[in-house]
Write a structure and sequence with these properties.
Elements: H1 3-7, E1 16-17, E2 20-21, E3 23-24, H2 35-47, H3 58-77, E4 86-89, H4 92-109, E5 125-129, H5 138-146, E6 150-154, H6 164-171, E7 177-181, H7 193-202, E8 206-210, H8 222-225, E9 229-233, E10 244-248, H9 250-255, E11 266-269, E12 274-276, H10 290-304, H11 308-326, E13 332-334, E14 344-349, H12 354-363, E15 366-367, E16 369-371, H13 376-382, E17 387-391, H14 398-415
Parallel strand pairs: 3-15, 5-6, 5-7, 7-8, 8-9
Antiparallel strand pairs: 1-2, 4-10, 9-10, 11-12, 13-14, 14-17, 16-17
Helix pairs in contact: 2-10, 3-10, 4-5, 11-14, 12-14
Amino acid sequence: MDINTLRQQFPVLDQQVYGKPLVYLDNAATTQKPLCVIERERDYYLHENCNIHRGVHYLSQMATEAYEHARRTVARFINAKETHEIVFTRGTTESLNLLATSLGTENGKRKTENGKLSVFRSPFSVLITAMEHHSNLVPWQQMVQLYGGKLLVAPMDDNGVLDLQAYEDLLKQGPQIVAMAHVSNTLGTVNPVKEMIRLAHQYGAITVVDGAQSIAHLPIDVQDLDCDFFVFSGHKMYAPMGIGGLYGKTELLEQMPPYQFGGEMVDTVSFEKTTFNKLPFKFEAGTPNVGAALGLETAIQFLEHLDRKAVEEHENQLVKTTMEKLSAIEGMRFIGKAPEHSGLVSFIIDGIHPYDLGTIIDKMGVAVRTGHHCAEPVMTRFGIPGTVRASFALYNTLEEVEVLVKAVERAANMLR
């Protein structure tokens, strides 16, 4: 890859903060957007802007076809079996809330329309891992509390590696749903999700994979994984904010009740009864973010034009080099040292609060994230208030790693 040429697609990187060149290392929070994505969304509002699925006039039909073409692109990108298995949402958080609410409601009904027991059996219990983002914890927590179930948590070791034996032991308790991070947003751990899915299915559980941190870094094949659901956010993979997706197997999506009600998701409506639209539309109430969906499609096309293996190797080299160079700093402690690691480095320095460290690093032109990263139980597990997290994207360079390391060294010396 020619990184310098690639960086020209990201004009936001070509600026100074506090009189120093910006080094943007907060990509796990959101990636920057290439010009092609920005221009596609702008072009939509200039030439195609219209509500979709509801009009017979030219603009509506053109916007509808563009939106549905974007859905087909997403389906191809993650290798969904059917296009209707892709539901557009605002992102990972909404996708997980949709699943928790809809699967919880289905569990509350206990039976399908033909009177047979459904796969959603009572009581409603969910198994997650100890490294989940709040978005893959709180919705399930609230649902099990609502339906009188329980939340099971698979532990991890001091390196941030999931305890697979403990995970399987918890599966023996019979959770209906297993929700797992593909890549931890705090530790960088790449979980063995294919094996976790296989085990979960062996015990009769439905599987949900949080792909927010994996989809920009790793190839995704939902059929090969055999996951029942996969969720992701566009803004973490070079697409606009406010768009993301939910993949679900057809047979499960068909059983699930709608998450929201209103226009588009209905088939027939009377004062006495409402029937719902077919997949995927029964889960897409109201006016969608069409421009962002087209931006998501363009971001996927942008990624597909790159050598994804070369991108993965480049990002892994950034992570490896960062850890090697930071390890020389006195008091350095990495939070997350799993052998299978992707996308980020999370660390603290003994005796220095991560907020103080991050604030001084920022003044040196380096954007990193500090805090608990919406994963407070992870911080509790390691007995710390938070970490400094440097997270990488395909446009970051080894020269930027050098700038980061020097900034951390200088900040640490100032704060000791």
